[in-house]
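Quick one: structure for this chain?
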Amino acid sequence: MNQSSNRSVIGLLVAWFCFALALGSSGLFQRAGAPALAATVWGLTAVILIACWKIQIVRNFAATFDLRNLITLHLVRFVGVYFLILGAQGRLPYGFARPAGIGDIIVAIGAVVFIAAPRLRGSRAVRIWNFFGFIDIIFVVFSALRFGLQDWQSMTALRTLPLSLLPTFFVPLIIASHVLIFVRLIRAAREPTGA
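Got it. Here's what it folds into:
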């Protein structure tokens, strides 16, 4: 894949991040209800996965993007520490913050291990980590929806900066990255057999 195509995809990601940042800064996202929050996450995730499947330059970028970089994205899940702090302060429901925070911290620590130990990246441990991380992020999204439906105001922190970047940028990328990692690991496992 040529550098121009890579720059185009990276440019799209930067533009998307800037839009998510502007949306958070504007305060418009603060009015979003729990269903809108969930729809944002799932809609953006679908757009990413469809783009990876149907748009050639995005598909090429996703296929050649270093596995280490896909794993590195999960360092953002150290946000779980902030979830725990907000839960302890009563700014997020503790029933959401504690399991979401602990799960995200575990996934982020796993990412650090795989970044530091390149020989582990194709191992069964990565498959287990990726499966756990995928289940964890799905749990976090549904848990945010459940708590938001019970008490819309209790999830205000997720609709204001900096946490508004989670549903509008990072969480869709994280979910899509888990899918891409699964695809990469399956392909890598088939290569030695000639399949």
